[in-house]
Amino acid sequence: MASTKEYLDFVREQLADLDTIGTRAMMGEYILYCDGKVVGGIYDDRLLLKPTKSALRLMREAGLELPTEPPYEGAKEMLLADVDRRELLCRTVQAIADDLPAPKGKAPRPEKPEKGERMK
Questions:
Q1: How far apart are CA 64 and CA 17, in angstroms?
Q2: Are 29 and 71 within 8 A, CB to CB?
Q3: What's the pTM value of the predicted model, to 2 decimals?
Q4: How far apart are CA 50 and CA 36, in angstroms?
Q5: Tens of pLDDT along 10-37?
Q6: Which terminal residue of the chain, N or C, has fewer Cβ atoms less than 10 Å from its own Cβ?
Q7: Contact, 81 vs 40, CB < 8 A?
Q8: What are the structural domain ranges in the chain?
Q9: What are 68's strand-pairing partners?
């Protein structure tokens, strides 16, 4: 089941205090970015986050049971976010981004051969 645009809009509103949030549609679901890093995604209208050390610590301190679920069959378990606790959600998403390494740059594309020229 694909995620709805309404749920995406709700999650984006909950994360509005963070300046560097972005999303990208992917196969009916949405990937969530913070500071240019993938921090989680919206799958079947559930916000799932990467289980970094800081995210686990923040959620434990808030008294949450740390529910985990895979985004789809065969995938690694991710943290099921409590989207109703806006401040905690923002702190957790930012902490995950801070825990993750900087994104790798894209490799340059190989040059296309001119018409009539053979590839090397």
A1: 22
A2: yes
A3: 0.83
A4: 14
A5: 999 999 999 999 999 999 999 999 999 9
A6: C
A7: yes
A8: 5-99
A9: 79
